[in-house]
């Protein structure tokens, strides 16, 4: 059985080394030494400052909105994981969608500008599948209209564009370190905050609002534990291998499937992390056929992202998002992870190639 993702597990003896440290120290959470170590190692690895570890990527977005005082209207993309829209809704914001670019799958700066209203406070673009947004264009729009930018960078770990970390753009970037992500700490996430004062505020907000022992503002509990940080440290030791193996798999898919299926267009001048391999089919019917064929061959791709978020039952706006809805209807993410063997990838490629040439094989259910 080949799944779309397989969580990366480091050598258990490496993890145990950290666990023994934790046991002897009896410091389990509250900004412990492993959380501190992971923080500084990540800042160095990502070439950024002001990284704040938290318990997951969704709470990172909620915190970012709180830090920037966003309570009214926010603009985001309909083509993302549901957490991108749930976080602002949970915080009581109104959500307006701006449609995506057909080839890059990222929110369109032109559409953002068209959707800005007098009460728009913030834009939440997503670097979809790690492909950087048009960050310069989004910066122009946000400056012109005086709105904040929170990048949902859940997929963009280690990605650079224009020679620097993509996490340096916008007011705040949020990361997810969920088990299925390219870098993970089982559950976890982070905020990367450009402004130093705002960063200090965030440090207190994730710890109930405590600031030098005093309580000055409403906080929450979003702390990362030492056990999670330990997993993060182990995975970080292997990150170069993880990325380079994914790169090999990615390049082979591109080589073998060019002309057979559509690909995401990567933004120019990008140092990519090869975190996903999405393919575009002609239409939803073709997608469902291919999915069936793959499944019949014990290969389990994922319809991701699906559905387009503007079609969720609890979204009030009835506005259509033609590009996002079209892409969501015919996109499939293929298995890509270090443990995927050459033979397994050959099987996936062959199934896709043959299912496109001959009438689709039926599963024997
Ligand atoms: C995974 C993900 C999140 C949520 O992160 P969690 O750590 O699972 O809470 C948010 N946005 C996107 C785009 C994601 O893929």
Description:
- The chain is an alpha/beta fold and 365 residues long.
- It has 12 helices and 17 strands.
- Strands 2-10-9-6-5-3-4 form a 7-stranded mixed β-sheet, with helices on both faces. A 3-stranded antiparallel β-sheet has the order 8-7-14, with no helix packed on it. A 3-stranded antiparallel β-sheet has the order 13-15-17.
- A hairpin with a 2-residue loop joins β7 and β8.
- α1 packs antiparallel against α8, α2 runs parallel beside α8 and α9 packs parallel to α12.
- 44% of the residues are buried.
- The C terminus is likely disordered.
- The structure holds pyridoxal-5'-phosphate.
- Pyridoxal-5'-phosphate binds next to α3 and α4.
Write the layout of secondary structure elements.
Elements lengths: L1 E2 L8 H14 L7 H14 L4 E4 L2 H11 L5 E4 L6 H8 L3 E4 L11 H7 L4 E5 L10 H11 L2 E5 L7 E2 L2 E2 L6 E5 L12 E5 L2 H10 L4 E2 L2 E2 L10 H12 L1 H19 L4 E2 L6 E2 L5 E4 L3 H13 L2 E2 L21 H8 L1 E4 L7 H16 L8
Parallel strand pairs: 1-16, 3-4, 3-5, 5-6, 6-9
Antiparallel strand pairs: 2-10, 7-8, 7-14, 9-10, 11-12, 13-15, 15-17
Bound molecules: pyridoxal-5'-phosphate (PLP).
The site of pyridoxal-5'-phosphate has 14 residues, from helix 3 and helix 4.
